[in-house]
Amino acid sequence: xxxxxxxxxxxxxxxxxxxxxxxxxxxxxxxxxxxxxxxxxxxxxxxxxxxxxxxxxxxxxxxxxxxxxxxxxxxxxxxxxxxxxxxxxxxxxxxxxxxxxxxxxxxxxxxxxxxxxxxxxxxxxxxxxxxxxxxxxxxxxxxxxxxxxxxxxxxxxxxxxxxxxxxxxxxxxxxxxxxxxxxxxxxxxxxxxxxxxxxxxxxxxxxxxxxxxxxxxxxxxxxxxxxxxxxxxxxxxxxxxxx
Length: 243
What we know:
Layout: E1 2-4, H1 5-10, H2 17-25, E2 29-31, E3 34-35, E4 42-44, E5 50-52, E6 55-56, E7 64-69, H3 91-95, E8 99-100, E9 108-115, H4 118-126, E10 133-139, H5 145-152, E11 166-169, E12 179-184, H6 189-197, E13 203-211, E14 214-215, E15 225-227, H7 230-235
Parallel strand pairs: 9-13
Antiparallel strand pairs: 1-4, 2-3, 2-5, 5-6, 7-9, 7-15, 8-9, 10-12, 10-13, 11-12, 13-14
């Protein structure tokens, strides 16, 4: 696929377009070992090698990031009243105009997908009502089998419009009985609080740990992020980001 040199550098996260043009004009950019000063030069993204000051670039047409949003950070990039998810990401994510794919309330922590691929953004949100979300919930009292059965019999919520959720004890239940998991469609922090309150349980924290088959990595602490690996992109049916 042919890409203009300045766009190739931009999507390799070298800098702003102004900084990129200066690098090209000053002879700091080489294509296949040859200095290239034409910013409109066509680069084959699949086969050409481009370096800046000897450093080989990593071109990606689109970037897909998985992040563990900290509680207290807004999932809305343009929120002017709170810290946002974008503040835990590097500056080049803002330059790329990346945005979160899924929603996560400010009172929640956990899995967020962020990308500059508008096609995937719209694809995900077209099917979000069909996607399964798993929330890890810390509570003020032990969650018992009776609570699980109460969920299974149906939660009659006046303001809850999502499908019926299921409650389960976590795998680590015997080590942490003050924890449970709620599996549902995408729901808000307030919805989860209301559902648990009907059981006489107070919610202390909520963490989104999975969307369908994509699971938040256990080693990823709040505030950490990384780009999706090949297996994760396959789970999400994401095409090759390099093409």
